[in-house]
Write a structure and sequence with these properties.
The complex is a heterotrimer of chains A (97), B (110) and C (517).
Chain A (H helix, E strand, L loop, with lengths): L4 E2 L3 E2 L5 E6 L2 E6 L4 H7 L6 E2 L6 E2 L12 E4 L2 E5 L10 E3 L4
Parallel strand pairs in A: 3-9
Antiparallel strand pairs in A: 1-2, 3-4, 5-6, 7-8, 7-9
Chain B lengths: L10 E3 L4 E2 H9 L5 H8 L12 H12 L20 H6 L1 H11 L7
Antiparallel strand pairs in B: 1-2
Helix pairs in contact in B: 1-2, 1-3
Chain C lengths: L1 E8 L3 H12 L4 E4 L28 H14 L3 E3 L3 E6 L2 E6 L2 E12 L3 E3 L12 E3 H10 L7 E5 L3 H13 L2 E7 L8 H8 L5 E3 L1 E7 L6 E6 L12 E4 L2 E4 L3 E3 L2 H5 L4 E4 L4 E4 L12 E3 L9 H18 L5 H18 L19 E3 L12 E4 L9 H5 L5 E2 L9 E3 L8 H5 L5 E5 L6 E8 L10 E5 L5 E11 L8 E8 L8 E4 L11
Parallel strand pairs in C: 1-2, 1-6, 2-3, 6-19, 8-15, 9-10, 9-15, 10-11
Antiparallel strand pairs in C: 4-5, 5-6, 7-16, 12-13, 13-14, 17-18, 20-23, 21-24, 22-23, 24-25, 25-28, 26-27, 26-29, 27-28
The chains are: A mainly beta (97), B mainly alpha (110), C alpha/beta (517).
Chain lengths: 97, 110, 517
């Protein structure tokens, strides 16, 4: 859920909307935001599944350190989505390693 | 509520899915440093390189062995400190090739 | 090859302060930061800072960050964002930007890489929806996304308390704050801000287990003994879709280990930190540290350490003579002394504390026959903070040179203007008019939520624990530029509740938030 108005941060300024794709599902993102933010906003909580236990993982530290949010972006795996900005037409897939 | 996953054992290393039990067993088997625990269990070898688990494992090691926490050093740091594409390293071979030779394995020397 | 005189790793408060200080005396400075934004953690700190005027007390963290960044740029500092420092080879930093690797040749290096959040492992802790408290703060304050709707906060240090409050401001419900220790670790004023908005702080409690299929749905909390072991039969199951872990920070010293600096374990400062001298220089000549990487403290301390490191590096390059450098370092060191004074509780106010000439120490004023609003300063913890003294135009509030002193109020000159209410970073000052009308008292509260109540509206008046006391009527709402987004809300309540009411809950249904999905 997008916080469009906030008592301290004010009104969210209009920003260009772009579309990215996650495992075939198209979602809306705001230009300049990280992939993880767009996914969280779209209600997606499972960014990947672990190798041994096949557990869902998602957003954890938010600043590129824990690597739990890693996904395959435009064919390249292990991309930390919380510090990688969205780009128009990005194709993102869940890793299952 | 389905908590069967929780019954598989509590994870301490998120990246490599290593349980607390495995870490304690490694210590019982003789591991006395974070590096040794890492070698045996893989805890700390994942993409985050121990950032999420090393503090927890240090506390377990201190508890199991009585080693003071201030004597438990990290398993060791090697470059790169963040995930980096091999293509980026390959492109930069001319710039840093000689330097990397000293830190990476000799297999890099081509 | 990137060449510079001073390379700074980290564009947070410490790194930027170091950059400004060294650039001001002519050093060529480049700051590298792996994030896409400058300011480090400051960009998420939407609350007003403590400290004194020099520390920009009363200014919101986000604005401090912007000021620092602007100043650095204006001084000719080059800031390279999205640039990761990933290695250190033969005295040179290796960086990467957009998959392009570069080597940095610098005469001096200042490492200001900050800290990372600790983790707490419990069964189910890997479920999506469980995140670092800082991660939740990043989502809501930087990316404007609600982390979740029903949040459990783990940890009642300043980080947990502040982020719990910010979650309320963002529109989340904070079910509770659990804290394993028997006492709240953070400042009392931070705790009060959430308690009076109905968020209980459960000390002596921890998370036993998190449950859920694909994301967290329920959490089991339990009481703990003093050794933090769980007391059987005290478990309680709560619905939650988010758990925030605020269980401490650890200095992010990876680069310094790589550089083979001598390290030392300091448990009060978060773990291993580099050994350093008064110039903030490590055991390796030419490598300096500043900020949380040198020990977990506060942003204002990070800035002062940055200043010292910056000026020391510039001095060693010959950009400033020793005497002038010493002056700057002395000032920073004095500031650090003030900021490092330990918070402690003041003795409870007794009859003895009241003097005859009208100076009354803070907190509860039992009987006072005076018309008009008077400030009630509910600040009884000695923390380094004095915006209340600075802001009062009539000199009614006195803190003194030791800024951890409690504020002393002199009512003789007080006009009830409410500036102190707005200036207090802890939102701990209220205005009380006991004789507003025959049956009513009027209380003015600092208010930082949406929707803002409207004049004439009926609200629910809450006590310091967030429990309903009575109904109130909104008399006035003032939101001015000077208040910097803190509103003054004046309500009328039955006289007998004047000493209890310290918060309100609006009863309007529209939340003012659009685009809920």
């Amino acid at each position: 859920m997008r916080i469009t108005i906030h008592p301290i941060l004010g009104l969210l300024k209009e920003r260009k909307k772009i579309t990215i794709e996650i495992d075939g599902q198209k979602i809306e993102a705001l230009e300049g935001e990280p992939i993880a933010a767009a996914l969280w906003n779209a209600g997606i909580r499972d960014f990947r599944y672990t190798r041994k236990r096949k557990e869902p993982r998602g957003f954890f530290c938010g600043i590129g350190l824990c690597t739990d949010c890693k996904m395959i972006v435009n064919g390249i795996p292990n991309i930390r989505t919380c510090v990688t900005l969205v780009e128009k037409g990005m194709k993102i897939q869940r890793q299952r390693d | 509520m389905d908590n069967s996953k929780n019954e598989q054992g509590k994870l301490v290393c998120r990246c490599e899915e290593v349980t607390e039990e495995e870490v304690r067993q490694a210590i019982k088997d003789g591991a006395k440093t974070l590096r040794e625990i890492k070698m045996i269990t893989r805890a700390g070898m994942g993409l985050c390189q121990g950032r999420s688990c090393s503090k927890i494992i240090s506390l377990i090691l201190a508890e199991e062995t009585g080693i003071s926490i201030d004597k438990i050093e990290p398993a060791g740091y090697r470059p790169p400190l963040r995930p980096i594409a091999i293509s980026a390293l390959a492109k930069a071979k001319k710039k840093i090739g000689k330097k990397l030779k000293y830190k990476f394995s000799s297999a890099y020397n081509e | 090859m990137i060449e510079t005189e001073i390379a700074i790793v980290g564009a947070g408060p410490a790194g930027l302060a170091a950059a400004c200080e060294s650039a001001q005396v002519g050093s060529k400075v480049i700051v590298f930061d792996e994030n896409n934004h400058p300011g480090g953690q400051l960009v998420k700190q939407i609350h007003k800072f403590f400290g004194s005027k020099e520390h920009l007390a009363g200014v919101r963290g986000i604005d401090i960050g912007k000021k620092l960044y602007k100043r650095a740029l204006s001084l000719g500092v080059e800031v390279r964002l999205g640039t990761v420092v990933w290695g250190y080879f033969e005295n040179q930093l290796a960086v990467v930007f957009n998959n392009q690797v570069e080597v940095v040749s610098a005469k001096k290096i200042i490492v200001a890489t900050g800290a990372l959040e600790n983790t707490l492992s419990f069964p189910g802790w890997t479920l999506p929806g469980i995140m670092g408290a800082g991660g939740a703060q990043t989502l809501m304050n930087l990316y404007r996304i609600l982390p979740g709707k029903k949040v459990l906060m783990v940890g009642a240090g300043n980080v947990g308390l502040i982020i719990a409050y910010q979650l309320l401001q963002a529109g989340a419900e904070v079910i509770a704050v659990v804290e394993a220790a028997p006492k709240i670790g953070g400042y009392k004023v931070h705790a009060d801000k959430i308690l009076r908005n109905g968020v209980p702080i459960l000390t002596g409690h921890t998370v036993k287990e998190a449950l859920g299929k694909e994301r967290v749905e329920k959490v089991i909390i339990a009481q703990v003994r003093s050794d933090f072991s769980i007391i059987p039969e005290t478990e309680r199951e709560i619905d939650a879709d988010t758990i925030c872990l605020a269980v401490g920070l650890t200095p992010l010293t990876e680069l310094l280990w790589l550089m083979e600096c001598e390290m030392r374990y300091e448990s009060d400062l978060g773990g291993f930190i580099p050994v350093r001298n008064k110039n903030m220089e490590t055991s390796i000549s030419g490598i300096y540290i500043a900020g949380d990487v040198a020990g977990i403290e506060e942003a204002s301390i990070a800035m002062e350490e940055g200043r010292i490191a910056g000026i020391a590096a510039a001095e060693s390059l010959g950009h400033i003579i020793s005497d002038k450098a010493r002056m700057i370092k002395n000032r920073a060191e004095e500031s650090l002394l003030q900021l490092r004074l330990n918070p402690s509780f003041a003795p409870r106010m007794t009859e003895k504390n009241k003097t005859n000439n009208g100076i009354i120490k803070n907190s509860q004023i039992e009987i006072l026959n005076r018309n008009g609003s008077i400030p009630i300063i509910e600040c009884n913890e000695c923390i380094p903070c004095n915006p209340c003294e600075t802001v009062c135009l009539f000199g009614c509030i006195q803190v003194g040179t030791t800024i951890t002193n409690l504020p002393l109020l002199n009512l003789d000159k007080c006009t009830g203007c409410g500036q102190c209410v707005l200036a207090c970073p802890g939102l701990a000052i209220f205005l009380l008019d006991r004789n507003y009308s025959k049956d009513e008292a009027a209380i003015t509260l600092p208010y930082e939520f949406l929707p803002l109540p409207k004049k004439g509206e009926k609200v629910i008046a809450l006590d310091r624990n967030g429990s309903k006391v009575c109904e109130g009527e909104v008399l006035n709402v003032i939101l001015t530029k000077k208040g910097d987004r803190t509103a003054l809300v004046k309500i009328a309540i039955p006289k007998e509740h004047a000493d209890k009411v310290r918060s309100i809950k609006t009863t309007r249904l529209d939340s003012g938030k659009e685009g809920e999905n």
